[in-house]
Structure formats: C-alpha cells, structure tokens
C-alpha cells in the first residue's frame, strides 16, 4: 500500500470569465474564434504530497483556491491540467447542503450518503445508530432536512462524514457552525480518527485550530502554493502576512545568516568620511542590519548599527533600539544611556552591535527601530523607523507575544 494518501502534480483550474452573459454565446458561435472572455486561474500549477495519517491544515484568504482544491480532490470538480492521485476512501464535509437532498428526511439522507460512498444498505444499517447518537437532533432525524436549522444540518452532516470509516477526511469550515459542546465533540472524534491513522485535510479561518490540531500546513494565495511546512510555523507566517501584506516580503530579507556574515566581512571599513552633510546635521545612521531575518524563540538576535559623526565630539551621545509589533505596540526599547554603556561619540565612522542572547518573543512579525540621541535621549539626532523587520516562527509551545518564565502548582 502506498504511503502517499494524496499526490498533486502541476494542478491548475481555469475558469473563463465574461463581462456579459451574451459574450459567452458570441464566443461559442464565433467563426473567427474570437475570444470574448478572459481566463482566471483558481489554481495555478500547484504540487504537493500528503502522507497517510497526516493532519494537514490548508490556509488562505477567501478566493485563494482552498475550496476549489478540495472539490478537485473529492472529484466534485475536474482540473484543467495536471494530475491528482488519491489513495483511499474519502469522506468530505465541504459545505452545508453538499450531498444532501433537502426533500429527504435525516434518516434517508444517511442512507443516501452511504450509497454514494459505496456502502450497501445493510452495511449502513449498523452505522445509523452511531450517526444518530452523534448528531443528537432528536425527532428531527425523521423530518425533511429542508426544515433544519444550520446548526442541526451541520450536526447531521458531520455525524455522517466521520462515522463511515473514511481513510481520508476533508473538513471545510464545518466547525464554524454549531455550539461549543458540539465543536468539542467534533474535535474529539477527529482526534480519534487521527490516532487511528486517518488522513485529515482541515480548512478553517480560525488559525489557532490549525496550529493546535494539524501537524502540517499548506498556505495558498491567489491559487498558488506559498509555502508548505509545520503547521505552527506556517500559521505564524500566514498571520504575519495578513497583518503586513506585501510589506512582509519586502521588509524581510531572504538571505541566510551565513550570507549576511559574509557581506559584513567583505565590507571595507573606513574611518575617513567623504560625504559630510550640511544643514547642521551632527550625525546620522548609515546602516542597520541583523544577523538574520528569521528566528525561533530564544535565538540569538544581533542588530548591527553603523553611524557617522560629523562633529569633533557629541557630549551625551547614546544609541537606542526598539522592538515593535506590526501594530506598533511597543515591546522593549533599551538605550546605551540607561544601560550605562559608553559608545563612540567622536568624529568618524563607527559600528555598534546590539545583542539579545535569547530573544523571548513568540511567533509573529516584528519591526526594529534604531535612533541616535544626546542629552539623555531628549534630543533626537537621527531615527530610523522599521529599520529592520524580523519574522519569528516556532513549533506550538505557548501563546501570546512573549515567553515568560513560569510554573504551576496545584493547591487543592
């Protein structure tokens, strides 16, 4: 038996979009084959593998292609190009109403869904009672599902999907419907399936659910796979992107720590200043770099600040470094005056390194401000807002913004 549950190779799904309904007819009847529509890629050349027993969270904004991908995997849609291989019996909860006849009763829809999955009526009979118990909708099980509330519908649909012994379970935003007690029951059942080796694809806009439940994450944006990796790390990157958008890509350097160090070593340091600004400028920051742009919590962070001083000497000169969240919440901001550190304050070019041996921030994107001042920080000489941006990602081990040493004691 193959270890691969789902294999997707160069998969694309293209839709033709038309400005007016008549344009579709004109194109179909055109002798010259004139094109009246335009192509829209719901999915564009995506590839990935999912192993048996993996629990995979799929992340992306509305319209990113998540639901299209799931429908292709389940066979509801056919791809425009590419290959897909599915090894195992699939049970899918894609959207409310999918696979149910609104005129049928709950019981009748249980048998209908079982038939579509290949079970005989006799095989379904032994599954009906567990499904009814899980759905827990009482006498409504004998009523047409068109009379159900959305919560009741979700209960029955989920009960059917997880009680037919699937080898692959696909859940698309289904847990957003229903009360807390029902959601708890669903997650407990999914954990049971997970422990029994069922492959699970899980789509949810509640990223904390993906982080806590899934082992792997796939981030899709505008029909393309952005990144695949550990669920917690992918969630951290996705949430940072949702806050910063394209700023995340432009603000975080893709070069490695080793490349950064090579660049630093190759730079020729000169004490002589060739370009002295006028207008009474005393000094300026010429460069701010970090030892890396991507970190784990407790990694060593180094910020290298290069600056030039144009006066013979600046009394009370100090350097400050500040760490901010993407929303500009101030996390920490020491300076050399408060820390009683003497830094070069005479004419020339200088370099100072700010070091955090074990950075305590948890997952997310953070920005670093750097400023030079005098007079105990009252007078700002030069200031660089968001001089560098860093990304912190981790395996799921804590929540919030900072890790604080702590312990627990049971007192009763």
From TrEMBL:
Domain ABC transporter residues, every copy: 6-247
Magnesium keyword on record: no
SMART domains: AAA (SM00382)
InterPro entries (UniProt xref): AAA+_ATPase, ABC_transporter-like_ATP-bd, ABC_transporter-like_CS, ABC_transpr_TagH-like, Bact_Polysacc_Export_ATP-bd, P-loop_NTPase, Wzt_C
Pfam families: ABC_tran, Wzt_C
PROSITE patterns per UniProt: ABC_TRANSPORTER_1, ABC_TRANSPORTER_2
A cellular component annotation (GO) from this entry: membrane
Listed GO MF terms: ABC-type transporter activity; ATP binding; ATP hydrolysis activity
UniProt keywords, alphabetically: ATP-binding, Nucleotide-binding, Transport
Keyword Transport among UniProt keywords: yes
Top-rank lineage group of the source organism: Bacteria
PANTHER family: TEICHOIC ACIDS EXPORT ATP-BINDING PROTEIN TAGH (PTHR46743)
UniProt similarity note: Belongs to the ABC transporter superfamily.
Protein's recorded name: ABC-type polysaccharide/polyol phosphate transport system, ATPase component
